[in-house]
Amino acid sequence: MPEQPIRTSTRSCNRTMSRTLDGYLFDPADDIWKIPTAGGIASFNFDNLPGASTRLRQCIKDVCAALLVSISPSRAAQALSAYRRLLRHAAPPHPLDAIALNDVVRYGESLEVRQRYRLRRLKEHLLLWVELGTPGLDVDLHRALPRLVTQTHEVGNAVRMMDVDAGPLTDIEYEGVTTAMRREFAAGHLGLADYTLLTLAVTLGTRPLQLAAMKCKDFSATQRQDGSSIFILQVTRLKQGKGIRPRTLFRPRELSSGLGALVQAQCKAAADWAQRHGLPVGEAPIFPSAQFTRTPHMAEIGLLGHFTGRGVSDKLCRLFQKLEVVSHRTGKPLVMSPIRLRRTLGTRAAAEGCSAPVIADLLDHSWFDSSLVYVETRSAMIERIDKALALQIAPLAQAFAGTLAVRDDSSEGRLVHHVSAEAFDAIGRCGKHDFCRLAAPLACYTCSYFHPWIDAPHEALLDGLLSERSALATSTDLRVASVNDLTILAVAEVVQRCRDSQHEREAA
């Protein structure tokens, strides 16, 4: 049951205050509400309801107040936007005292094909209005509303079409992003908090609001009997139905040892930050906001020191933009957003053979219907790469991280060899001066310490990798065959650079 209104007294009047589901007190008598939520400030302007009489405006205000108290601020904001669009279309010559069936039907007929799902959304909001028992709807609308025919919103087009700006990242783009993240962190251009935030977003596909709401107490590190560590992060669930506020339900996620250690270090830094700023360490956010003094209202909903969901979303977009990863499909910087990361997680899970229910669990969907699109498009997810295409897109993929060098006979640096049935050739040197235990030479081409020689037989290695990929694609499937795609592109870039260097020498 929603909480009872709270009556407060002032010198001039007695006012009845209400408390939102998140715990924020507001005055429903005001014409403009600014409601703090975990996602950000939700604004409600009841002066901006064109065509509504004073009576209808009050009815709409009563509906929104009830939704704020019993369901969620986001649902109330969506309802107000839907009512406003309806009233703008109705454009009555005289103010309306009630919404009629004819107003709703004409609004639906005016919508373009791609916007007709809005009538369904409006119907859902009007049904809630009826359920609340608030006046403002004509009797004819009451009777016809349950039988009103509407269209569902077609979802999944960005995934089905592999949209270059909004759809999931290809494997090459994904590897480019994660490689750039590691490179920038190793170079000190990304701090611990930013790198951890990016890594969680990419690995778990968590929504910005889920990242913003995380507290240090949500993370735990324990040990198995064999001494190995278990890292668990409790991720708050969202969109779980009426009256379920953030940080009410959680889904545990086990983290890999590398990611777990990263989050553990960030939690230690966040606890130190909370102590310095006089905030309760037990309630410290994993990702503290440096601007928290500008958002004191967050304390009223139990999120003092936290980013808003909108703040995390903006931050993620800025961080990805700084990585300057270029798409091999467009030749332009990748357009990155949190929703693309979620679509990428679903796409990669489907390519690994996961079922729709498993993908729904990974994406924190309550129903697996939304996850079916990933399974349906599974076969179209992995590109076919031949030599011509590899040479063409290699510079865009930016997979090669080393530096070309002229062959020398010095003893500095470990020699890297390409071993084949025909030859045992030195192809470059390792600038790390140490054994990294990775599989040379394949791992070398994507390493920044590698110095491939200009006159080495890199093209023979490229041909061998492409032949192996083709054979695996025939005998197994493209997912298995694509395991070395990033290396193929790195070798192809070296081949292309060596050709360019040869042409320059000949021209000179």
Topology:
Elements: E1 6-9, E2 14-19, E3 25-26, E4 32-37, E5 40-45, H1 54-70, H2 73-90, H3 101-110, H4 117-132, H5 139-144, H6 157-160, H7 171-186, H8 192-204, H9 208-212, E6 219-223, E7 229-236, E8 250-255, H10 257-276, H11 309-323, H12 338-351, H13 356-362, H14 372-376, H15 387-397, E9 414-419, E10 424-430, E11 450-452, H16 458-475, H17 478-481, H18 485-507
Helix pairs in contact: 1-2, 2-3, 2-4, 7-8, 8-10, 8-12, 12-13, 15-18, 16-18
Short précis:
The protein is α+β, with helices and mostly antiparallel strands and 508 residues long. It contains 18 helices and eleven strands. A hairpin with a 4-residue loop joins β1 and β2 (14-19).
Can you offer a commentary on this structure?
Keywords: DNA recombination. This is Site-specific integrase. One of its GO terms (molecular function) is DNA binding. InterPro entries: DNA_brk_join_enz (IPR011010), Integrase-like (IPR048120), Integrase-like_cat_sf (IPR013762). The protein starts with 5 loop residues before the first strand and ends with a helix. Strands 1-2-3 form a three-stranded antiparallel beta sheet, with helices on one face. It has a three-stranded antiparallel beta sheet with strand order 6-7-8, covered by helices on one side. The model is unreliable at 1-13 (pLDDT under 50). The chain has helices at 54-70, 73-90, 101-110, 117-132, 139-144, 157-160, 171-186, 192-204, 208-212, 257-276, 309-323, 338-351, 356-362, 372-376, 387-397, 458-475, 478-481, 485-507, and strands at 6-9, 14-19, 25-26, 32-37, 40-45, 219-223, 229-236, 250-255, 414-419, 424-430, 450-452. The protein is α+β, with helices and mostly antiparallel strands and 508 residues long. The protein has three domains: 6-147, no CATH class; 171-328, Orthogonal Bundle (hpI Integrase, Chain A), CATH 1.10.443; 387-507, no CATH class.
